[in-house]
Design goal:
Layout (H helix, E strand, L loop, with lengths): L2 H4 L4 H33 L5 H44 L4 H4 L4 H21 L3 H19 L1 H48 L1 H6 L3 H53 L5 H42 L8 H6 L11 E8 L8 E8 L3 E6 L6 H8 L7 E6 L2 E2 L5 H7 E4 L10 H5 L8 H10 L3 H6 L17 H15 L3 E5 L7 H15 L3 E5 L3 H5 L3 E6 L2 E6 L1 H7 L1 H7 L19
GO molecular function, one term: ATP binding
Keywords: ATP-binding, Membrane, Nucleotide-binding, Transmembrane, Transmembrane helix
Subcellular location: Cell membrane
Length: about 575
Amino acid sequence: MDLRRLTRGYRRPIVAAAALSLLGTMLALVQPLLAREAVDTAAAGRIPWPVIGALTALFAAQAAALALARWVQAHTGETMTRDLRRHLTGHLLRVRLSALDTGRIGDLIARTCGDTAAVKTLIAQSLGTGLAGAIGLVASIGVLAWLDPWLLGAVVVLFGGSFAALLAVVRRVRAESRTAQTAEGVLLADLERALGGIRLVRACRAEEVEAVRLDTSARGAYLANLRMAGMVALSGPANDLAVSGAFLAVLLVGATRVSSGAITLGELIAFTLAMTYLAAPIYEIFQAVSAVQQGSGALQRIGEVLAMPVETDRPVAVARVTGTPRRSGPVMEFRDVWFGYDPTRPVLRGVGFSIPARGQTALVGPSGAGKSTIFALAERFYEPDHGTVLLHGRESRFIPYSRHRSVVGLVDQDNPLLAGTLRDNLLYGATSVTGGEIRRVLAMTGLHRLIETLPNGLDTPVGDHGRRFSGGQRQRIAIARCLLAEPDVILLDEPTAHLDPDSENALAETLHEVSARCALLIIAHRFSTIRTADRVLVVDEGRITAAGTHDALSQEDGYYRRMADQPPFSGTGYTSPPNPRLP
């Protein structure tokens, strides 16, 4: 992203701010000329009331113009920052998971919040005022040259050296700014890491370990910001020395020229006053250049976020899915699907199976066999490297993401709940849900008894990540949320993992009732779940190695039978036995 793209649509207020700032500078430059007349008139023994009145009006007009310019700048900067953050957050919510997997969430948050704030400073301190400062500088030099070119020569010599020093400093500001912004991102990412896993940190007694890590990150940010502050601080003395030196030179040389009669006292005072106004545009130019250097690093980091690939529906998709979907036959099919998070190391190797429109299908197999990856492709978090995933007989890659995910529901094993009330979480992503449907789903999942014990019923806050509820309760809430969306196929990742026996039996009845209306694909590690499935798919080393009912596979498939004989078949610490069917 560059300034040209960033300012598109905001150039009118930027130009208005520049015009107001320039107007303030022009009004200031008129004041020395009137001051010269006032001093010369007063020296002749008369009170210059008209000139004093004009100066008063000019002071008021200048203050109003500059105040309005700053407000327009601030308003434009805040508006651009809001729109940029809206664009960034909308982009991040659609970034492909494969791209998010390679980054750190905390750093992305820093770019969305901290770097956009740097861009706001860029808008407020550079665009508009920088241009006005440049024009004001030229105009100020013109007035000084008209008043006394000899005195102007002394000023140019002193300010020229100061300006050269400022440019040398500014060249370093951009590099130090990007380093500081990167260090801030690392600090925020490490803090998000520690707080996101605070229970693990406490359980492992790793508070000191994380404190040291955060202290290291904070020190890195501190040193980077300190270096940048040092670069900016160097500019102040150079500018102050130039102004002080120029002021003294003007007084000394000017006094000599007044005593010789070359200029009047009023002209010397007018020149001195005009010279003080010369500092303002120089300061504005320096602030603009410095803000551009600091903001350019932020713009580069923001541009890297916007360059991350997003989920984009193919244009052909709309034309391909306008007809009525085919409801007969399998609801979902995998045909010779190959996939790897690293394309050189495939996780799925030619997976092929179909899911009927009704009933329960269980995926079983050791950890790392590819079951969760099958779910990720079924939900289109990733796309196959080779092969095809079909939904209702159509290739999923030609179906819009939103439509695909309205048909395929997911209940993850982690069962995340979002900050808000229980009602917010149950209705998350659902539309046009009636009270009767909510009560029916609550009864199906056994949540109605939980609701009765809550102080505010469905309007009870769930807490951060839903930690006010147990793992089993969060799991049932996630199932209820999925049922309210009424998908055609529901993916359940070990739905009984956090349930006691009574709740497990109740959930089995619920799943049996649900499977009469839609398809269920379940990652199962308990044989209580596998036995109730209409069909079992055995996954090992990225392949479907067997398919059938639990009873049939127990009798006919030696690999499945050996796997079943290794209790508790939970996947934890489980080593896959040799399979003669695999090469």
